[in-house]
Specification:
Distance between the termini: 45 Å
CATH architecture of the largest domain: 3-Layer(aba) Sandwich
Helix content: 40-55%
Strand content: 25-35%
CATH class of the largest domain: Alpha Beta
CATH topology of the largest domain: Molybdenum Cofactor Biosythetic Enzyme, Chain A
Number of helices: 14
Shape: globular
Number of domains: 3
Length: about 425
Amino acid sequence: MVVELISVGTELLLGNIVNTNAAYLSEKCAQLGLSLYYQTVVGDNEERLAETLKTAVDRSDVVILSGGLGPTKDDLTKEVTAKVLGRELMEDAHSKERIQAFFKNSQFKVITENNWKQALVPKDAIVVDNANGTAPGIIIEEGEKAVILLPGPPNELIPMFEHDIFPYLRNRQPEVIYSQMVKICGMGESMVETKIVDLIDSQTNPTVAPYAKIGEVHLRVTAKGETEEEARKLTKPLVKELKSRFEDYIYTTDEQVTLEEAVIKLLKKNDLTLTTAESCTGGMLSARLVNVPGVSDVFKQGLVTYSNRAKKKLLDVKKSTLKDHGAVSEQCAKEMAKGGVLSTGSDVCVAITGIAGPDGGTEDKPVGLVYISCYMKDKVTVRKFQFKGNREKIREYSVVNSLVLLRDCILANYK
């Protein structure tokens, strides 16, 4: 099936809001094996929205619209959709009751008249309850086609899609789709593709598709079959081949597992405790680690040693090291990692020092120069990087590569 996305909202066109819904929905449609050829962002304008919707319905099997379902006058999605599809708007008693209950249990006790607009739905539409807001989702079936309306706020759209829309779309598929993700770290996208180009060129069913992330490459293996069991069986040989080709570069084949979760699991498995010592990342690494439930079992302390004084006082970095080599140097990174272990009594310390920019770079030490070190079992490993991009990107790449280095060091010592 061919799916098309329409994101509604003038605020999206003006850049006031980042369109995260489109990225989320695109990924979910890929999981379902749907072909996505077009995405459109259209403002809160009746004429342009109607024209966009007519085009989408004409060329696609499923059209998903997000945004414009609220109570205000500029929320036009439902009204325009009903008009384009020739459906009368009718009050849905169930939705009205849910709106009443929502306001009764919220701080806003008074229901203004415009809120009842959200209880109007196109005739014969399927109403999807909104567990996190007042505007219900709507599915309108037109023969073999479907038009799906979702609320704009991500905290409403995502749960609704996961709970109701994903199963609905899966059931509409003529074949069952099964996907498995193979997640790779420590290897660039071009190298990953080079290693699987023969598989991509010869693929039919199953297929493998690479997705580049910051510091990672994800390979989605997807198969179609009459049953989920049949589709699952088709993916196994290809996943096995990928494991053979990438070996330890694969950190998980579970789509839900993140790199930091995989690293924490390795630390727990080997009964290791961890300290982080950060300069240019300013605590981003420790923040990412503490997103993982149960991290307190292994994470001892996170030190943000941004200044030279802090590096000397908390990590025992030598004054002569800072004077002769500077804070952004291999020597400083080594001493930071060793000092992190000695000062906290942990088994492992990962340290980061670099120039995130946009100022502060020199010809010898340009913006993006980062040293990452890992001290473990009385041995320190240092990697030098020259990252490109803005300050945020440089810091994000530093964090990911810190996790990669930590993982590599654990595997080298505890395989």
